[in-house]
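One thing: can you check what follows?
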Amino acid sequence: MQSVPRPAQAVVLPYRSRAAAPLPPLGVTDGELLRIISDPCTPVFLTVHGNGRRRYSYWQPFDPRTGRGSCYVALPTDACDALHSTGRIALGEPLVEPGRTIYRVRLADTLPTPQRLARPAARAA
């Protein structure tokens, strides 16, 4: 009998509530990462390999003006893990394959604070 390999599991990073403390300001790298992740034309994925290696990446389409692209681009894992641990990005449903698990990376859902509409001043009749 052969043993069936178990699928790779993502390490769930601890969640930090936004109400507990304000988030630290974004650095240039973090802002650029959030711009890439928020672009609907650039789906970003987290691949967790069976040995525990994590890789955030996206597909860069070919750009005929520059002659570059048509390849996968890796994002800095430490910076993406920091964004995930602070609650700025979230992982989607896992796609489990033998030897690796793939998650879609999206911006975290945040509920905007409700804004009150200013009422027009009452006019004297």
